[in-house]
Structures are given as structure tokens and as C-alpha cells.
């Protein structure tokens, strides 16, 4: 990992925020999540914003509870609440978290502790700021604040965990090593991370590195099904199956017209849930 893993703190004066109402059940209940979109934060030429697949996946989480929640419920949550490194109760890892909408929604909907939101160094300050914006809501819900970290997919076995809070951004980072089984996660979430030809290999290697080897472990991925991305998506599926993973649930949705909308000249999104193949 490069030495510049500590990201700069964004200026509050340049930060915009949005509020998303995310469904928490099938009866119309929602949770309100505030998301920071600081101006000027970029990685790989892309600014920090909430992309369509992130909203789709956040909206789908309550439907995915029966498939994904068992992996979280069977995880030990008796460890200490500390920023000093890995804990036995790591439960959810978000890859390419960006503004953090998906990871925050998962923490709130599933009352999950040990949630870690990761991205490249320039993006992590924005992710951390989104967490801070929701601190009071998380406290009211008795949900632990997600932690943020730097995870470069070109070196997928190393995760640098940042101390909580913008005031601690300059403190020494703590390293998690995917080669240690105790550092792995039973649930991985990733949205809007398949749009260039190098990403299928990098994303699948990162999932392979961090997904816990257990019957209940799940990886959930959501992406835009644009024509230009079809080869990228096809390669992603082939690589996931080549790792010994199998898709156990999938679906399509659209941000504007709902999950039953089918593409007519526009963009729709697909989500898929993966587990390790059983003997």
C-alpha cells in the first residue's frame, strides 16, 4: 500500500448533504439517512456522489434480509467497541463505499455492529463525514457507528482502518490482513463498482480475499446494466463462479420506476447475491 493512505479532511464549507428515505420493511416504514457529498473529492476521475446502484441496493436490503441476515446474526458481537484494530465481530464490509449509503443502510436496517466502509484514500473523508452526519440517528437506534477504511483493490489483502471521527483522521492507521481468518467478513456489499475492464478481476479478487469461508457468508453486488458494461458484467460473473461462488438470488430494478420496471432505452440495475458453493 502506498504511504499516502491518510486522506485529507474536507472543508465543511464545501460539503453538501442529501437525505435518502430507505425502506426498512414491506409496510412503508423507512429510515432517513443523510449523505455527505463534499465538493472536490475525486478518485480515478470520478467525484464523490451517490450513484444509482447504491440507491437501488440500499432500497433492496430489506428484501434481502432472509438471505443475508443469517450471516450477520450468527456473528459474535460481544467484543469491545474499539478503533484499535480488528475485532471478532466484524460483520459487514462495503467495497467502494463512496458516500456510504449502502453500508449505513445495512447498519441501520440490520442493527449490525462491526460494519466497515472502504474506498480509496481521496474518498474516505467523505465516507467518514456521512457516518458523522448520522451519529445521532445511529445512537437513537442503539446501532454502532460504522468504521471507515482504505482498501486498494490492487493490493486486496490489506485494509487500513481509520479511527472514528474527522478529528482523528491524522492518527496512525490500523491494518487488517485478509490472510488472517479472524479478520474476514461474513457479508460483503458493493454497488457501482463494475464500469471498467479492469474491475471484474480486481473486485472478485478482493471479494475472495475478504469473504468469510462459511455456509452463511454472502456477497451482494449491484451494478448498472448499460450496454457498454455488458462484457464487464459477464466477466465478473465468470470470475465469481471460477472462485467457487454461486449466485443464489438476483433481480433488476430502476431508481425512478421501481423494481418491476423493465428497461426501455434507459438504464436499469441488477443486483445479485453470492455464496460459496456447497460440497
From TrEMBL:
Q: Which residues form a coiled coil?
A: none
Looking at the record, which segments are called Disordered? 1-28
Q: InterPro entries, from UniProt?
A: Methyltransf_16, SAM-dependent_MTases_sf
Q: Which GO terms describe its cellular component?
A: cytosol
| GO MF annotations, alphabetized | S-adenosylmethionine-dependent methyltransferase activity
Bias type Polar residues, positions? 18-28
PANTHER family xrefs: HEPATOCELLULAR CARCINOMA-ASSOCIATED ANTIGEN (PTHR14614), PROTEIN-LYSINE N-METHYLTRANSFERASE EFM2 (PTHR14614:SF156)
Q: Supply the name of the protein.
A: Uncharacterized protein
**Organism (species):** Polychaeton citri CBS 116435
